[in-house]
Amino acid sequence: MTVVRYIHENPVKAKLPGGLEYQWSSYSEYMLKPKHISPSLVLETFGGKDQLVAFHHAEHPDDNCLEIVDKPTSRLTDEHAQSIAREVLGGESVLGVKGLEREQRDAAIAKLKQRGLSVRQIQRLTGLSLGVISKACKERGEREQ
Predict the structure, then answer these.
(1) Using an 8 Å Cβ cutoff, are 10 and 19 in contact?
(2) How many whole angstroms separate alpha carbon 69 and alpha carbon 118?
(3) Residues 6+ apart with CB under 8 A from 58
(4) I need a labelling partner for 3 at 20 to 30 A (CA). Which of 35, 55, 112, 132 fits?
(5) 1 near 47, Cβ under 8 Å?
């Protein structure tokens, strides 16, 4: 139900002409005679058109449907990334990661990712290839950025 409202309110949030009745929105398909969709499942779920309208117009401040919560405000600067790398590597040269045994190297890469460095930043700081970094992240279960 929240997803239906989210989709229909996209034009409203974007301040597009027509709001809920925006020309490319499916909202009017639920309210009028449908041409492109089969609204029966959604209307049955809501209990009819009146309830769908009421749901759309009700207050819903806690809806976080598809919203990114706690989104970082910005990426780390390379200078900040460098200081984190020095801290994580315990004074070891960032470029020295390239010469470590694979297990140690991959562990260092994983630690840098966990501290917020992007794959590209790790590449710039260590001189390692994107392939090596990506593989290390995947093998260690880290999500690439």
Answers:
(1) no
(2) 19
(3) none
(4) 35
(5) no
| Strand ranges for the chain from DSSP E | none
**pTM score, two decimals?**
0.47
pLDDT, tens digit, 9 for 90 and up, residues 120-131: 889 988 889 988
**Count of beta carbons in the 10 Å neighbourhood of residue 67:** 8
At 58, the amino acid letter reads: A
Backbone dihedral region for residue 129 (phi beyond 0: left; psi -120 to 50: alpha; all else: beta): beta
The Cβ-side half-sphere exposure at 132, using a 13 Å CA radius, reads 20
CA distance 38 to 26: 10
Q: What is the mean pLDDT of residues 76-83?
A: 84
